[in-house]
Design a protein that fits this description.
Layout lengths: L15 H18 L1 E3 L2 H9 L3 E3 L4 E3 L2 H10 L4 E3 L8 E3 L5 E2 L7 E3 L5 E3 L2 H11 L7 E3 L12 H10 L5 E4 L4 H15 L4 H4 L3 E7 L4 E2 L1 H13 L3 E5 L2 E2 L7 H22 L5 E5 L2 E3 L6 E2 L3 H16 L4 E3 L10 H17 L3 E2 L5 E2 L4 E3 H19 L5 H4 L1 H7 L10 H10 L11 H6 L5 H14 L8 H21 L6
């Protein structure tokens, strides 16, 4: 079944004048302040494209005409392939999708115990997430702590891709990491060339605020471009910490930083798919912690979505929540976060499922609760129609005053499923009926649902021979990474 089309963008937190003022400041930052880009091949490419490059400091200043040329070739529309065609994603500036949780170091088990994430958790989480209606792009929700860390990304790749039908949002650790993942993709697809036609995985490149692009990320960017892998160029700003405390000031830094990366990608390969991405938050001045679920964070994401679309780029936003338990705080934090992002037109709502404790913790129960929240939020984003069928004047006239027979009317039967959202976990019973069913709260119902999924036999998502080959390759690549001391650099 094709993924339903959901279009956002109903919420605007910046007016046209505000966007123009931010754009003016972004261009000044790029042309006058510059971005530090710590990879000589990238500096050389940008110099040749007309940028002002100081090789001694690695500072790149991007003139407006170079930026305009890059934005003219950066595509606003492209396709990300699922491993099965029904999970293909048609990307534009309006459609809204979700990306799963990312890289938690700890798991909140179904027994309620917080513990280091294990490889089994990665597989179990992926199996659970792959059943969710409102998840569109798969990510590795945990980084297993019971495996060697050099080359861990190859282990993630092999285990996630073997248990999902969706596009995989991957991460790397240098150029060799990208080459290894391309080689594994060729096993899944049958050839290396097929990846350009059907990019079943993408790569996130996390830059640093303020205005810093590490060499290892730029090496990955150049390797992704070489192999045709779509990229998310991400900045993780912290308002009041690494960027100005004001939302507009933070958005200016994000835009300048991301657009420098987009410019490099377009210089290397005009038309290469790039997503403007953030996982920004604000600094909580009481604790010094990153606050991803603060209302100000939601405003940062909404404003950045508008600016990304102003530049003609699809946008990824979303970040973790503060709650450490699947409780009322987790519910309101996630609901406000995903609803704001969807209404603002965030094309990929990231970290939207299962993540807690500011991205340190992944919860099986919260995965299912978040899927429920997303379903309700998406129903609001869908809005209402006002066709003749929806206005239903003829039905009102037919039944007339004081006639309560709408329930049995054919119009209700015909339209019920089209206009209604049907929850899976939400209780709508009154007290006695709820008690008769066990009196369970939402967390308990989510726990039971997770147990049902994970206790069932695993449904293979990839041919057994290919899955085994991915495991062999990942082990070999990780062994090489350990021998190279890969964590030391690109």
């Amino acid at each position: 079944m094709a993924i339903p089309i959901l279009r956002g963008g109903q919420l605007s937190v910046l007016d046209d004048a505000g966007m123009r003022r931010i754009d003016f400041a972004v261009k000044r930052v790029l042309a006058e302040v510059g971005v530090r880009m710590e990879w000589r091949p990238a500096l050389e490419a940008l110099r040749d494209a007309g940028c002002d490059v100081d090789f001694a400091t690695s500072i790149v200043k991007v003139p407006e005409h170079v930026l305009r040329r890059a934005l003219a070739t950066a595509p606003s529309r492209f396709t990300l392939a699922g491993q099965q065609p029904e999970f293909d994603l048609e990307v534009d500036l309006e459609r809204v999708y979700t990306i799963g949780g990312s890289s938690a170091l700890f798991t909140l088990g179904l027994d309620g115990v917080r513990r280091p994430a294990a490889l089994k958790d990665l597989v179990d989480f992926t199996r659970l997430l792959d059943t969710l209606e409102n998840l569109h792009v798969m990510h590795a929700i945990v980084v297993p702590q019971d495996i060697p860390q050099p080359g861990y990304d190859r282990v993630l790749w092999a285990n996630v891709v073997s248990h999902t039908r969706r596009n995989y949002y991957s991460q790397g650790n240098g150029a060799q990491s990208i080459r290894d993942q391309v080689e594994m993709a060729s096993v899944v697809l049958g050839s290396a060339g097929a990846l350009r036609t059907r990019p079943i995985f993408t790569m996130v490149l996390c830059m640093v605020s303020p205005l810093l692009q590490p060499g290892i990320r730029l090496a990955e960017l150049m390797e992704c471009v070489k192999h045709g892998i779509p990229i998310y160029i991400e900045v993780d700003a912290q308002s009041g910490g690494t960027t100005p405390v004001t939302t507009a000031g933070t958005v200016v830094e994000e835009c300048a930083n991301v657009l420098a990366g987009v410019t490099l990608a377009q210089v290397l390969a005009p038309g290469h798919p790039c997503v403007f991405a953030i996982a920004s938050g604000v600094m909580d001045m009481a604790t010094g912690n990153y606050a991803g679920a603060a209302p100000e964070t939601a405003l940062v994401h909404a404003a950045t979505a508008q600016m990304a679309h102003f530049y003609g780029l699809p946008f990824q936003g979303g970040t973790g929540i503060e709650s450490t338990q699947p409780d009322a705080q987790a519910g309101y934090e996630r609901a406000l976060q995903v609803l704001t992002n969807a209404l603002a037109g965030t094309n990929f709502i990231h970290l939207s499922i299962g993540m807690m404790e500011q991205m340190l913790l992944a919860s099986y129960e919260q995965c299912l609760i978040d899927d429920e929240i997303l379903g309700a939020a998406f129903r609001i984003v869908r809005g209402i129609e006002a066709t003749d069928e929806d206005i239903a004047y003829d039905v009102i006239r037919e039944l007339g005053p004081a006639n309560g027979m709408y329930l049995a009317h054919e119009h209700t039967v015909r339209n019920l499923r089209r206009v209604s959202w049907f929850p899976k976990l939400t209780n709508r019973d009154k007290w006695d009926a709820w008690q008769a069913k066990g009196g369970k709260d939402m967390r308990e119902r989510a726990r039971e649902a997770a147990v049902n999924v994970l206790s069932a036999p695993a449904c293979p998502r990839l041919e057994a021979g290919k899955a085994a080959e991915l495991q062999r390759m990942a082990a070999a690549f990780q062994k090489d990474a350990i021998a190279r001391g890969e964590l030391d650099g690109a």
